Amino acid sequence: MKNLVILGGGYGGMRILQRIFQHIPSDINVILVDRMPYHGLKTEYYALAAGTISDKHTRVDFPTHPQLSYRNANVSEIDIENNKIHFSNGEDLEYEDLIIGLGCEDKYHNVPGADKYTYSIQTIENARNAYQALNNLNKNELVCIVGGGLSGVEMASELRESRPDIRIKLLDRGTRILSSFPEKLSNYVEGWFHEHDVEIVHNANITKVESNTLYNNDEAIDCGAIVWTAGIQPNKIVGNLNVEKDQYGRVVLTEQHHLLDNEHVFVVGDCASLPHAPSAQLAEGQAEQIAVVLAKRWNNEAPPESFPPIKLKGVLGSLGKKSGFGVLKDTALTGRVPRLLKSGVLWMYKNHNG
Question: Name one Pfam family in it (predicted).
Fold first, then answer.
């Protein structure tokens, strides 16, 4: 029997599992390695941290199949030379084919103390920790959220809904939040924050973080809690791989999504060098193509020389439970409609995935 090992049960890993079982030969064992015994809805961790949804609502069961097994473990190293995965408990796992989907982690931009004194929402464990801190705050305490991108905006709005009794400050290094979105959406969201008493600080420059103290342009701000949403980078396990990477530290791949010099090692999701910014949609689109490559190989056929560009349907964001914003097919949406659309997409994913 040969081992196809998938590291990470995120959006890319889940989509690959859904697509390969109708093609998989009888001599292939599929082993999914993940720290958790279920798929976590990472796009909803901000709501878990804010306390507006329960832990249960961020979990989806992994699929089952006679040739699929699971291993709950922490990866410590990927040994590409010897086709082995090393785990933190000292055990190893050999593979014939490997799919790396370990996701991303916070990027702290070398800000002293940021990794130690801020809360993250990048993993479900981190989101749980943030929930405990944010929901134990006293009335009128200040929460500082660093980063005015999609994660920071959704975190701030959801926290406002959960804790109307606390103060919230959103710090962004640009001249407007949601800088990758049309200006119309940025203005709408800033108006929503003004209406709901969330303070926005533009042109922020976080120079240092200490316990319950954030320094913006070296000026101290006392905080009850600090949440970091100011950028991501590939998982450190992938960062340690001796392979070609782009300027963001993401792995450069062939058209078939495997390493340039190793057709048996694929990379999916946030750690892959792709034309678009990392997202769940992008990981799923890439996973569809990886599944085609594997199916062709198993049928002793040549994989496609290239694939059409992965098309993204758009981006939807929430402002609490009643309002939202988004871009669909180059059309900017604000208000109730994009919030309902996002809820519908999430419902479909949770109830039809797998």
Answer: Pyr_redox_2
* Number of domains the chain contains: 2
CATH number for the domain including 28? 3.50.50.60
Map tokens 């600080």 to a residue. 201
Identify the three-state secondary structure at position 54.
coil
- CA-based angle 55:58:59, to the nearest 5? 100
Q: Do 190 and 106 form a contact (C-beta atoms < 8 A)? A: no
Q: Which H/E stretch holds residue 186?
A: helix 183-195
**Residue-wise pLDDT tens digits, 204-236:** 999 999 999 999 999 999 999 999 999 999 999
- Say if residue 291's pLDDT is above 80: yes
CA 55 to chain centre: 17
Task: Specify whether 277 is located in the same domain as 179.
Answer: no
In 3D space, the residue among 178, 154, 133, 143 whose CA is nearest the CA of residue 42 turns out to be: 154
- From the number of C-beta atoms within 10 Å of its C-beta (0-12, 13-18, 19+), residue 279 rates as middle
> Residues 307, 171: contact at Cβ < 8 Å?
no
Percent of the chain with pLDDT strictly greater than 70: 99
Q: At 329, is the pLDDT very low, low, confident or very high (cuts 50, 70, 90)?
A: confident
Comparing CA positions, the residue from 153, 145, 82, 89 lying closest to residue 118 is 145
Cα 157 to Cα 173: distance, rounded to the nearest angstrom:
19
